[in-house]
Design goal:
By secondary structure, the chain is an alpha/beta fold. The protein contains 15 helices and 13 strands. The strands form 4 sheets. A 6-stranded parallel beta sheet has the order 6-5-4-7-8-9, with helices on both faces. The protein has a 3-stranded antiparallel beta sheet with strand order 1-2-3.
């Protein structure tokens, strides 16, 4: 709901729209935005993953070989894995600072853990990518100089970390880390949970690995549904450092309980069920059978659908054209702002830009002025331009 709340807040602050729980024709209430006389429903459903597809990838021989290779490379160590895009919002430096603090507090774990950090190149981020990349490389170098082999950093293109490569790393890892500052849809914790569902079996409990835990930022999209994860505030370095310690020293019963809670959502809310829920929400919207209640207004990108009373009759442009041609005298009233010109006070953002002079005020085009002159040249027409502006402002532009 947090993301829906941000969307609703933007609609109110930028567009001046109202929202709330509006009654529908079936007797219930829907969260909706009131715009142009219509109610636009807003719903919150977190996407899931498809376990059968992920299990098929995990059982592939190339995936199994890659898992064995990673486990052999870091034999005897607890593997913390992280897959993030190389941008500041992903919080990679905060994770590395927390790792450094954890090893300072618990030096006995040095040489017993490894953090495999995969950085997805984000060239489109420009300076943000360059700055983040340089900062990460510098921090990784400092940590490995003090505690050799603690961080395994790998940068790759997104095409090199597809589902098969991603699932191999998540399967080989014991703990997955997401310390993002602000995130959209992130399915890595869900995929990691699927990769370690067998930890709940008798065979999985006896494999000697303390695996299956997620360290998850409270600002990530899936933190509300992954209730079995260790939730941290990435801005609080001590919380992440404590999460390292908890993941390494957690009791077997507590670990099993958390994996079981996390697996509940990923096995119940699949991609198919998520799509079904969206379709049911769309089907559940009460549509107005009176087609005449809605009328279109505007042209091109300015077109919008307006909700009118049931007795409202849309203007018949053809009837108006016929009456215009046969009329002996015509009174034409034109609104200045919003009809002749775009309305500069349409929303708060445009008003702010206009006041700060970051955008010039709208003025009539030569084509529009020519059209007005043509209307006025017909002796049967009386043309008024209606505006709240002062006379000199209109005479200057018209």
């Amino acid at each position: 709901f947090e993301y829906a709340r941000h969307f609703l807040t933007c609609c109110r602050r930028l567009l001046g729209l109202n929202y709330g729980m509006f009654p529908d024709s079936s007797g219930g209430h829907n969260l909706a935005i009131d715009t142009n006389g219509r109610h636009v429903s807003v719903t919150s459903i977190h996407a899931g993953v498809e376990p059968p597809v992920l299990h098929q990838v995990l059982s592939h021989q190339s995936t199994c070989d890659r898992v064995a290779s990673i486990r052999n490379q870091f034999r005897g160590k607890v593997i913390f894995a992280a897959i993030d895009r190389m941008e500041s919002l992903k919080g990679i430096p905060l994770k590395l600072i927390a790792l450094e603090r954890f090893l300072q507090r618990c030096p006995e774990w040095a040489g017993k853990i490894v953090v495999v950090q995969v950085g997805i190149s984000a060239f489109e981020r420009g300076d943000d990518y360059t700055k983040t990349r340089n900062e990460i490389i510098s921090m990784v170098t400092n940590i490995n100089n003090r505690w050799p082999g603690t961080v395994q950093f790998q940068e790759c293109a997104e095409s090199e970390m597809r589902l098969q490569q991603r699932m191999a790393l998540l399967r080989a890892a014991d703990v997955v880390m997401v310390t993002t500052i602000r995130d959209g849809l992130n399915l890595i914790p869900l995929e990691f949970t699927i990769a370690h569902l067998d930890a709940l079996t008798e065979q999985g409990r006896n494999d000697g690995r303390k695996r299956g835990l997620c360290i998850l930022s409270e600002f990530s999209s899936c933190t509300r549904v992954m209730r079995g994860a260790l939730h941290v505030n990435p801005w609080k370095i001590s919380e992440i450092a404590t999460a390292f310690f908890q993941a390494l020293t957690m009791s077997e019963d507590e670990r099993m309980r958390r994996i079981s809670i996390a697996s509940e959502f990923v096995t119940r809310v699949t991609t198919q069920r998520w799509a079904l829920a969206v379709m049911l929400d769309l089907k559940g919207v009460q549509k107005n059978e009176d087609a005449g209640k809605y009328a279109g207004a505007g042209l091109g990108l300015g077109f919008r659908l307006l909700g009118m009373d049931s007795k409202f009759n849309s203007l018949d442009a053809n009837a108006v054209a016929r009456a215009y041609r046969s009329a002996k005298s015509r009174l034409i009233l034109l609104d200045y702002g919003g009809t002749i010109l775009a309305n500069d006070n349409l929303d708060q953002l445009q008003r702010f830009q206009f006041v700060k002079k970051s955008r010039p005020p709208s003025v009539p085009t030569q084509g529009l002025i020519s059209t007005l002159k043509e209307l006025c040249s017909d002796h049967r027409n009386i043309v008024f331009v209606v505006s709240g502006k002062e006379r000199h402002s209109l005479t200057k532009t018209l």
